[in-house]
Specification:
The strands form two sheets. A ten-stranded mixed sheet has the order 2-1-3-12-11-4-5-10-8-9, sandwiched between helices. The protein is of the alpha/beta class. The radius of gyration is 20 Å and the shape is globular. The chain contains eleven helices and twelve strands. Helix content is 41%, strand content 19%. The structure holds 3-isopropylmalic acid and manganese (II) ion. 3-isopropylmalic acid binds next to α4.
C-alpha cells in the first residue's frame, strides 16, 4: 500500500493528473499493489484566493507520504518568481529532493524535430542536481534601484551536494543503463571553481565504478551534440542551472512537452513526480493537452517505489499508443482528447 499525495496544481495540471491517476489505477488492478491518494490544494489558485502558498503544516504532512504526484504549478495572474520559489523550489529544498531525474527518450512513432534521428538515437537520461547551484538563493542587491545597483546571485556547490548527486548518477548508470556511460556536463573552462570541484569529485568517485565509462563535455558543446549526435549520450550528470536548460532542449528532441516527465528524488524518502511542461494556461479545460507526460511521470513514480514491472508496462503501453494511435504528441493535434489518450493507455494495460 503506497500513500500518494496528489497536487493537481494550476491550469492543465488537473487534466493531466486525472489521466495519470487513471493509468496508475489500471496498473494497480493488474500488478498487485495498492495506492491511497490524498489531494492537496496548492498552487496559484489557492494563493490568489487565500494568500497561502505552502503552509508549514502541509509541508509536514507531505513528509509522511511515499510519493507526491504533481500536475503543474504556475498561474498567469501571479507574478513570476512567487510560486516557483515559495512552492516548487521550497518543496524541493525542504524535502531535500536532491536529484532531478529527466529521461529523454524518443518513443517509436513520436516525431522529433531532429532530421534523420530515431528512437535508437535519442535515449538518454539527465541527472540534474536539484538543491544547490544558482538555485540556492544566495546573493542579494546592493544599492538597489540606483544607477549603481549591484545584483549578485551565487552558485553554491558543496562537496556533499555534488558528491551525492554524482554517486546517484553512477549508481543509476550501473543499475539501469546497459551502455554504462556517464557524461559530466560542466563549464570547466570558465567556471573554474565550481566545475573544478565537480570534475575532481567525478573522477575520484568514478574510480569506484570501473564498469562505467566517464566522459566530460562543456554545457555549450552538450547543447550542440544533443542536436547533432544525441546517440552519444547515455546518462548526463550536471548542476541545477545547466540541468534546467538542457532538459528543456531534451524535451524538444523527444517530441515536446507533451511527453516529458521528471522526478524530484531523495532515494528512500518522499519524492515528487511531475510532467515538466508547466500549467499551459491557454489549454486549460479544453481537453486537448497531452497527458502522456503525466502518465510517464506516474511510471517513474512506480519505478521509484519498486514497482518495476508496472512501471515498465506503462512505458510499453505509452510506446504503443504513440506508435499506433496518436497523430501527434502536440496539444490539440493528437487526434484524441486528453481523456481518450488516458483511456488508450489504460486499455493497453
Ligand atoms: C523546471 C522548472 C523550474 C526550474 C521552475 C518552474 C522553477 O523550469 O522544473 O525545470 O527552473 O527548475
Ligand atoms: Mn525548467
Amino acid at each position: 500500500m503506497y500513500k500518494i499525495a496528489v497536487i493537481p496544481g494550476d491550469g492543465t495540471g488537473r487534466e493531466q493528473i486525472t489521466e495519470g491517476l487513471k493509468v496508475l489505477q489500471a496498473a494497480e488492478r493488474n500488478y498487485g499493489f495498492k495506492m491511497e491518494t490524498v489531494e492537496y490544494d496548492l498552487g496559484g489558485e489557492r494563493y490568489l484566493r487565500s494568500g497561502e502558498i505552502l503552509p508549514d503544516s502541509v509541508l509536514e504532512e507531505l513528509k509522511k507520504f511515499d510519493a507526491i504526484f504533481l500536475g503543474a504549478i504556475g498561474h498567469p495572474d501571479v507574478k513570476p518568481g512567487i510560486l516557483e520559489t515559495r512552492l516548487l523550489l521550497r518543496l524541493r529544498f525542504a524535502l531535500d529532493l536532491y536529484i532531478n531525474l529527466r529521461p529523454v527518450k524518443l518513443f517509436p512513432g513520436a516525431a522529433t524535430p531532429l532530421k534523420d534521428k530515431g528512437p535508437a538515437d535519442i535515449d538518454f537520461v539527465v541527472v540534474r542536481e536539484n538543491t544547490e547551484g544558482l538555485y540556492a538563493g544566495t546573493g542579494g542587491f546592493l544599492r538597489k534601484g540606483t544607477p549603481q545597483e549591484v545584483a549578485v546571485q551565487e552558485s553554491v556547490n558543496t562537496r556533499y551536494g555534488v558528491e551525492r548527486c554524482l554517486r546517484y548518477a553512477f549508481e543509476y548508470c550501473r543499475e539501469k543503463r546497459p551502455r554504462k556511460k556517464l557524461t559530466l556536463c560542466g563549464k570547466t573552462n570558465v567556471l573554474t571553481y565550481a566545475f573544478d570541484l565537480w570534475e575532481r569529485a567525478f573522477n575520484e568517485i568514478g574510480t569506484s565504478y570501473p564498469d562505467i565509462s566517464r566522459d566530460y563535455a562543456h554545457v555549450d558543446a552538450i547543447c550542440m551534440w544533443m542536436v547533432k549526435n544525441p546517440e552519444w549520450f547515455d546518462v548526463i550528470v550536471t548542476d541545477n542551472m545547466f540541468g534546467d536548460i538542457i532538459t528543456d532542449l531534451g524535451a524538444m528532441i523527444q517530441g515536446g512537452m507533451g511527453i516529458a516527465a521528471g522526478g524530484n528524488l531523495h532515494p528512500g524518502k518522499v519524492s515528487m513526480f511531475e510532467p515538466i511542461g508547466g500549467s499551459a494556461p491557454k489549454y486549460t479545460g479544453k481537453g486537448v493537452i497531452n497527458p502522456l507526460a503525466a502518465i510517464c511521470a506516474g511510471a517513474m513514480m512506480l519505478d521509484f517505489l519498486g514497482e518495476y514491472k508496472a512501471a515498465d508496462e506503462i512505458e510499453k503501453a505509452v510506446a504503443r499508443v504513440c506508435s499506433e494511435k496518436l497523430q501527434s504528441l502536440n496539444a490539440g493535434q493528437m487526434g484524441y482528447s486528453t481523456a481518450e489518450v488516458g483511456d488508450l493507455v489504460a486499455e493497453q494495460l
